[in-house]
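hi! just following up on the protien thing from before. the input was this:
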Amino acid sequence: MSEKFQAVVIGGGPGGYVCAIRLAQLGIKTACIESRGSLGGTCLNIGCIPSKSLLNLSEEFQKVKTLSNKGIDIGEVKLNLPKMMKSKDKAVTILTKGVEFLLKKNKVTYFKGMGSFKSKNEVLIKDENNKATIINADKIVIATGSVPVSLPGINFDEKIIVSSTGALKLEQVPKKMVVVGGGYIGLEMGSVWSRLGAEVHVVEFLDHITPGMDKEISTEFMKILKKQGIHFHMQHKVETIKKNNSGAVVSTKDKDGINKDFECDIVLISVGRKANTNGLNLEKIGVELDKKNRIKTKKNFQTNLNNIYAIGDVIEGPMLAHKAEDEGIAVAENIVGQSGHVNYDTIPGVIYTTPEVASIGQTEEQLKEKNIKYKIGKFSFMANSRAKAIDDTEGFVKILADEKSDKVLGAHLIGAHAGELIAEIGIAMEFGASSEDIARTCHAHPTFSEAVKEAALSVDKRAIHS
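and the predicted 3d structure came back as:
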């Protein structure tokens, strides 16, 4: 007899483990299956967490080299890359073990192995020794995340041609790195290796970086990254990537049809991710997929089979860990008859470069497309007391509000701590706040958050410090 559960979650990433814990909190006998051997998914093991560790460490390395300009004299600064990588790995290990503890604490049964459907109520689990276990469940949640996409005909070897996974594990600083794609992941990893000494070239098919971001922020972001020494080659299409004895050659063609080759040690391909639905045996049980091989779901995250649900990167929407977490909680609550939901209009996005970039809600371009009349409030960190005091003045805050009601429709920030500051605007938007509400809220002085208040004041053309 196979073991029986009320709910099984396939995937132990941010969406999956959070979903499993919430189900257990709600009194459901729950199991969570993860194939990686450690919990936390891409985010914790080979994504968000290790990349943020390296971003922080490379930023510290860069800062230390300039401390003498601020009256702190130190000796020669040297990079110890193996030690830096160990520090990154330690952070990952601590956090993955922490997630395992949380499952145990909440009495979630954890299976290590690859899960696939045997029937709509049965999941087959194969461990690393190919030993098979079958478990039975009333409800099953698919939370298997996503995997990196390469270019047609080009395979990752994770040594010379790398995805974000390989870029987090390089054993030495490349002399020259080509990043294919000007999105979040490519720019973050490009920033890391640039700060550590690599010459970084970004090749992008479009005429701007960070597609989907507010254009004004995107333009400012590229200016700052150029100033930091990253080279950009816009409107270049990659034709081929060929490995050679010294690394690889990336052959491109620009908008005028002119060919240009880039010789480099490492090529980071960062052109997006795709739903990880392979191997689940979905076709056998009849779960419907869309054209991008994502799982089709209804508003309550239910698939076309009533007892099977899907969340996170395997369904439509931004591929973000916090989006998956919110969906994990919502689907768990729906399963027990509560009213779980996710407000997709208030999901923030953050790029953890230096400076950080953060956005929430709609961009100017989206509002124009929808013919929504809006007002803009902007405030530069150049005029912020705390930013000036610590010499960290790059960037600005931009708030978009409805022209008539003054309701906040979106906000876009570039500057120090932007990823933290965006949370204030997220809460404001959840409560349907106006820019006036933010402007009339007392903010501590001197703090970076005052720039948010001043931007809100600026919506009504009454900023005090600019």
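The longest helix spans residues 81-105.
The chain has three domains: 3-148+274-342, 161-268, 346-459.
cheers
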